[in-house]
Amino acid sequence: MSVLICGSLAFDTITNFPGRFSQQIMPDKVHILNVSFLVPTMRREFGGCAGNIAYTLHLLGGQPLVMAALGNDGGDYLLRLQQWGLDTSQVLMAGDSYTAQCMIITDEDNNQITAFHPGAMQLAHNTVVPADRSDIQLGIIAPDGRDAMLSHAAQLAAANIPFVFDPGQGLPMFSGDELRTFVAQASWVALNDYEAAMLCERMDITLEALSRQPQLRGVIVTLGAQGCDLWQGGVCTHVPGIAAEAVLDPTGCGDAFRGALLHGLSLGWPLARCVALGNQVGAIKIAQRGGQNHVLPPALITAA
Q1: Long-range contacts for 133-137 (Cβ within 8 Å, ≥24 apart)?
Q2: Cys-Cys link to 228, which of 4, 41, 136, 222 (CB 3.0-4.6 A)?
Q3: What is the CATH number of the domain that holds 92?
Q4: Which residue, among 262, 304, 290, 277, has the nearest Cα to 65 in the 3D structure?
Q5: Domain, as residue range, for 171
Q6: Per the structure, how many domains does the chain have?
Q7: What separation in angstroms does the CA of 112 have from each of 14, 46, 144?
Q8: Which of 225, 219, 226, 224 is nearest to 272 (CA)?
């Protein structure tokens, strides 16, 4: 089974600030905010939600099919995906744009400030969910260009392919009515706790009521180190987190979780087992820098 991963491919420039943002920002002066953070370390990583999700799903033995856009500097990223053995037929190469670029500053409390240049991602809507691929049985709508998220969700729904709606940092782009449409088309919704609060506010709904919508098989709300809450039919089940060996970099932890979630869903696992694997993989990822550098223990891969 191929899992269609609709989302961004990006280069991440990741820096670390050896202090706390809260000590540098004066709450009563935010209307004239002018701050600079000294970041002694910097590295460039392959990233983007689609790439990160595909990386973990591939590690677990799944078959990710990435639908995304790369720019004229994306040749190395395309080669990377091909070296994993991935089908890259749904990756658009946009010759007149840069690949999306994410610039991240992380403080010592793992708070992050991010600047994002969408680049070629703004052209991702020019890709179309293939209607002639019977091997695609599952998908995810991850953060991407606004038009791409809208069109790809509608195309997945029209093709009767169940998918996870994972708006992530793209959630603020959508109105309450647009979010209702996404949810009505999706089979699962995955959010962190902040995104869950925003989605509920914009849709004027509670998580309990959201999870009672008949087409939804589950609403997953990740809670960082505390694990996640799994909502099904108005009932919340807490799935505890896994203690990490080290906390080095939260970049891509949510994507690693989603790669594991998709792996379990593709195998027909109960949702609680899917998210428990996601918690395990997220704890492994946070102990490594970057979104695509973690290695999964052979025993975990075998058990999965």
Answers
A1: 133/2, 133/65, 135/1, 135/2, 135/63, 136/1, 136/2, 136/3, 136/4, 136/65, 136/161, 137/1, 137/2, 137/3, 137/161, 137/162, 137/266
A2: 222
A3: 3.40.1190.20
A4: 262
A5: 2-19+42-303
A6: 1
A7: 10, 18, 20
A8: 219
The residues pairing with 116 across neighbouring beta strands, listed in sequence order, are: 102
Is 29 contained in some domain? no
Please say if 255 is a catalytic residue: yes
Q: Is residue 35 part of a domain?
A: no
Q: Distance (Å, rounded) from C-alpha 176 to C-alpha 178? A: 5
Tens place of pLDDT per residue across the chain (304 aa): 899 999 999 998 989 999 999 998 888 888 998 999 999 999 999 999 999 999 999 999 999 999 999 999 999 999 999 999 999 999 999 989 999 998 989 899 888 898 889 999 999 999 999 988 999 999 999 999 999 999 999 999 999 999 999 999 999 999 999 999 999 999 999 999 999 999 999 999 999 999 999 999 999 999 999 999 999 999 999 999 999 999 988 889 999 999 999 999 999 999 999 999 999 999 999 999 889 999 999 988 888 7
Provide the token pair at 131: 């209607």
Tell me the CB-side half-sphere exposure of residue 197, using CA atoms within 13 A: 3
Q: Which helix (H) or strand (E) holds 210?
A: helix 207-211
